[in-house]
Amino acid sequence: xxKRGNDRTSRGYNGYHVTWSGKRxxxxxxxxxxIAKWCDIxxxxxxxxxxxxxIDNKSYKPDFFIYDNNILKTVIEVKYDENDRKKYLKRFxxxxxxxxxxxxxxxxxxxxxxxxxxxxxxxxxxWIKKSASIESNMRDNLNPxxxxxxxxxxxxxxxxxxxxxxxxxxxxxxWKKRHEKAMSREEVKKSIxxxxxxxxxxxxxxxxxxxxxxxxxxxxxxxxxxxxxxSQFDVDMYYKNDNLIGIKYKDKDNYxxxxxxxxxxxxxxxxxxxxxxxKYLHTLVYKHMKNMKNREPMRKEFLSYCKxxxxxxxxxxxxxxxxxxxxxxxx
Length: 331
Known about the structure:
- It is built from 12 helices and 11 strands.
- The chain is an alpha+beta fold and 331 residues long.
- The protein is elongated.
């Protein structure tokens, strides 16, 4: 077995099996094993995925090929879902009927009947334990496809098919929906969480993950002074090839890069700067109107003139009240 299996769907269990005639075949699920064992019990000659058909300009490789005196008689497809079984029959049965080959699609409910009738459950459990012992290593000769190369024509077909799928919005929606459905299951979440925790228990694996995600080659921690409250705070500077690529603060809500120790200080300082700026503009407008009219401007005149100049007339932000403007500038 080369990857963890799923007992609910029987997918993920894969491994080798020796047929009744002594041939070694590679099976990709527990359901495939049950069909293979069923053929063994009945002494049926079969092979797996050894032919590819071009149907409606699309390649199709069935699971099982049943032979009688070296002549292909039946093609069997194994599917977990009953809806998939119906889709495959609708799409491919007529093609095989036309060329004189019987086409069968088994779904879970059919395979369970076979398993019960021929008492195959014991053999499938043994196959999972022995031939499909759970391992995660698919490297080198442990991979059943090790040493097998695609032809240039196959590579072009794979590339063309991949491009079609990438550009197909319906295909993207379909797989996004299936992925979200699968990832929302509680057992999947627990399985992923358990696997991640196990990886981080290994110091070497943890170091590899850290180095893989690290995009910098140098980190410098500096101490700075907040220009708002005057307190000290730490800043981590990240460099790549001596170029600054990022800054990280001890306070993740830091407001303005490198100037304030907290978001609160940044907001306070920002308000103070804006208040000084609007107060300065209101002072200039008031003095200008006073010189222009040779008298103290009225509140409505002041607000109207600010509006004409495109300046905020919100006196509360600068002096508080119009009376305060007159007292402060004439005092």
